[in-house]
Amino acid sequence: MDVLREVWDFLSTAILRGGMYSLMAVGLALVFGVMNIANFAHGEFYMLGAFFGYFILNATNKLGLPIFIPPILCIVGAGLGVAVVAGIIERTSFRALRKRSKGQWLMNTFLLTLGISIILQNGARIIWGGKYRGVTRMWRGDFLNWFLKIGLPPDRLIGFLIALISILGFVLFLNKTRTGRAIRAVSQDEVGASLVGINLGFIHTLVFSLSGLLAGIAGASLLSVTPAFAFMGTMPLYKSWFVLILVGMGSIGGSIVGGLILGVLEAFATTYLSQYLGSGSQEFICLTVIIAILLIKPNGIFGKAVKSASE
Q: For the segment 109-161, what is each residue's pLDDT rounded down to a tens digit?
């Protein structure tokens, strides 16, 4: 029975972390692949999603709605709210920078996103204070108790399903819609895309908003696991970059696989190595594997060789 419980703990941790890391990494890879922006404010989009989700969930729980409606409104509302914030940031910051920056675009955007990250962190601290805001359980219902009996928390399972559905929906959007194909065209050749009539400004804003949408969904989905606080975005940001480095910069499809790999590695470290290596076992095993892979494939598992970082 103890072995079964240990297996359930391992699986629930692996699938939840893997799904959320994939969701975060896909948004980060999208912005890097299409706009060539190393977004170091991506973790703060996750943080905003957690805060937005918390307040939406509390407000809707007081309305006497059916038990499944508040969590859905929480996650959808948080994702859309962060998408709006991300779109405003792109229009007011990166669009202006693009018009004035003639060189060193990657470095300039890195510094800009780092500044945005600091502003969002401290802005959240000023507005919402240093208090942790979370919930004990998002999803309720008698049938969910079955998962509790076998040791699989419903919030973790549904969180993974939300991540999976979001990623599948995003992939279908990129491949099956006209706008999605326009995004792919811009990622391949901006000049050629503009020559055939694609509005680059619209695509850039949309891409940044979609990235914020995915991060916001991740933050809201994990409210019962990780409560909202102003500086919570740092670790998800690092994990997202771990995934991108592991699979190759800008690889959207590879980010899905990379997130799952990282989730399994962390779950393995937490379950089997933490008693020997301490609290740093997750970072140790993940970085060790990433370094080993990069020694064999310097461009990542799915990465292609490039001549410079700007490519």
A: 989 999 999 999 999 999 998 889 988 878 765 555 555 555 556 777 788 78
* pTM: predicted TM-score of the whole model, two decimal places: 0.88
Report the C-alpha gap between 268 and 273 in whole angstroms: 7
DSSP state of 308: S
> How do the domains of the chain map onto residue ranges?
2-296
CB atoms within 10 A of CB 230: 21
d(CA 80, CA 58): 17
- H/E run at residue 59: helix 42-61
Tokens of residue 144, six digits = 């969910």
Do you know the residue count of the chain?
311
Cβ(58)–Cβ(131) under 8 Å?
no
Judged by DSSP in three states, 133 sits in strand
| CA–CA gap between residue 32 and residue 249 (Å, rounded) | 7
Nearest CA among 240, 247, 237, 239 for reference residue 298: 247
- Top pLDDT among 275 and 58 is at 58
Contacting residues for 97 by C-beta, under 8 A, at least 6 apart: 108, 109, 112
Among residues 242, 291, 272, 299, the alpha carbon closest in space to that of 21 is found at 242
**Residue 62, C-beta contacts closer than 8 angstroms, at least 6 positions apart:** none
